């Protein structure tokens, strides 16, 4: 079971101090948070991708490359990578490069994004969002899995004899989770490929989450990837903790009441009753999240949103200390009890390489070209195409 955090990178005024950080301060704070996630024993750090204020993370591979150089065990991911508006060729190459730099500690959560204006900014039509997600991912898979690709589709320029470089590390592509809140088509897509399904349920009641995960599990089994309970499931979550439950509620309330995504709607108490948001003691968080598998079955990844709504960096780091020191160790034990042996862990680069029969050098050496008349292929390498 993997536990970690994800950030959406919002630039929000702290309602208590009245101060709004600069972009530079927010970006540096996100990096501090990522490094602290590894220090407190978490498994995963994931960053969102946005191209409009008030969000700052527009270049996930740049951020994750920096974090990769500063960490040794942290699994790096996205939440989410926009499969609709990014060119799948660029995704294939950017994340293969990151995979090499991070020595395999990389996976992706694919998503369509929730900001409508992004589509026309990148020359796309939001009305084609689902079709873009399906076609672009089909091309991305081929670019990682096949050395030479011929492609003709509806949404991008055709490709002829194209090789994406660098090739995936050890000949194994990064693992992909398909993120969706409400689209059954994306659950179907994840099941079809045998990929993971990440349901970011932070604004949704558990009944909806339960239905979406159940659909994905049924279709995963239908496509022959294993039994339904072996499907790879991840969930989102939100928590704010203090030793005393009332202290947690008192401290978090002004952030909840003023945050653009929460405020001016249901009360904090109503929201916590209807969604995974848990504001209270560490034990209350443990009880809430240990019960998730009652609804969705044994799952593989739990990510928490911790650094949002204008919370100051000092407070976020304190929350990570509580999460890593008091909550996750207990959840690891509780969620391991009664977990069937045939239910897999979340795939990692190491497990994927082992499943593929071992690592292989996937380097592509070019044929002699018309400019230099020579090939960079080493005479002794014995590797060519």
Question: Keyphrases for this structure?
Answer:
385 residues, alpha/beta, 10-stranded parallel β-sheet, 13 helices, 41% helix, 14% strand, disordered C terminus
What does this protein structure show overall?
The protein has 385 residues and is of the alpha/beta class. The protein is 41% helix and 14% strand. The strands form two sheets. Strands 1, 2, 3, 4, 5, 8, 9, 10, 11 and 12 form a ten-stranded parallel sheet that branches. Strands 6-7 form a two-stranded antiparallel sheet. Helix 1 runs parallel beside helix 12 and helix 3 (88-101) packs across helix 5. The protein is globular and about 75 Å long. Residues 380-385 have low confidence and may be disordered.
Structural class: alpha/beta
Q: Which stretches are poorly predicted, pLDDT < 50 over at least 5 residues?
A: 380-385
Please work out how many helical segments DSSP would assign: 13
Q: Averaged pLDDT, please?
A: 94
Helix-strand pattern, N to C? EHEHEEHEHHEEEHEHEHHEHHEHH
Largest β-sheet summary: 10 strands, parallel
Share of residues in helices:
40-55%
% residues in beta strands:
5-15%
Overall 3D form: globular
First-residue to last-residue Cα separation: 40 Å
């Amino acid at each position: 079971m993997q536990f970690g955090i994800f950030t959406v990178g919002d630039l929000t005024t702290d309602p208590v101090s009245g101060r709004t950080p600069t972009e530079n301060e927010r970006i540096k704070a996100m990096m501090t948070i990522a490094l602290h996630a590894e220090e407190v024993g978490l498994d995963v750090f994931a960053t969102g991708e946005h191209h409009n204020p008030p969000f700052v993370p527009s270049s996930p591979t740049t951020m994750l490359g920096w974090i990769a150089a500063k960490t040794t065990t942290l699994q790096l991911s996205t939440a989410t990578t926009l499969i609709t508006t990014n060119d799948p060729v660029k995704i294939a190459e950017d994340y293969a490069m990151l995979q090499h730099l991070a020595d395999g500690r990389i996976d992706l959560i694919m998503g369509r994004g929730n900001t409508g204006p992004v589509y026309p900014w990148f020359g796309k039509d939001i009305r084609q969002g689902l079709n873009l997600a399906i076609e672009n991912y089909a091309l991305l898979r081929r670019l990682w899995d096949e050395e030479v690709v011929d492609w003709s589709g509806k949404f991008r320029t055709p490709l002829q004899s194209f090789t994406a470089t660098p090739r995936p590390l050890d000949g194994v592509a990064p693992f992909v989770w398909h993120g969706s809140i409400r689209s059954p088509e994306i659950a179907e897509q994840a099941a079809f490929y045998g990929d993971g399904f990440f349901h970011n349920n932070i604004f949704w009641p558990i009944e909806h989450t339960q239905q979406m995960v159940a659909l994905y599990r049924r279709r995963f089994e239908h496509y022959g990837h294993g039994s339904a309970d072996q499907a790879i499931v991840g969930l989102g979550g939100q928590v704010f903790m203090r030793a005393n439950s009332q202290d947690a509620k008192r401290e978090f309330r002004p952030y909840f009441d003023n945050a653009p995504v929460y405020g001016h709607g249901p009360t904090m108490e109503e929201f916590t009753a209807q969604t995974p948001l848990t504001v209270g003691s560490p034990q209350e968080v443990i009880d809430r999240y240990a019960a998730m598998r009652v609804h969705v079955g044994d799952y593989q990844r739990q990510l928490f949103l911790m650094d949002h709504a204008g919370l100051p960096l000092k407070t976020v780091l304190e929350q990570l200390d509580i999460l890593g020191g008091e909550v996750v160790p207990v959840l690891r034990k509780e969620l391991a009890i009664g977990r069937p042996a045939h239910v897999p862990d979340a795939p990692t680069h190491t497990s994927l390489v082992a499943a593929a029969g071992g690592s292989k050098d996937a380097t592509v050496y070019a044929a002699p070209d018309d400019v230099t008349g020579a090939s960079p292929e080493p005479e002794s390498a014995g590797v060519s195409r």
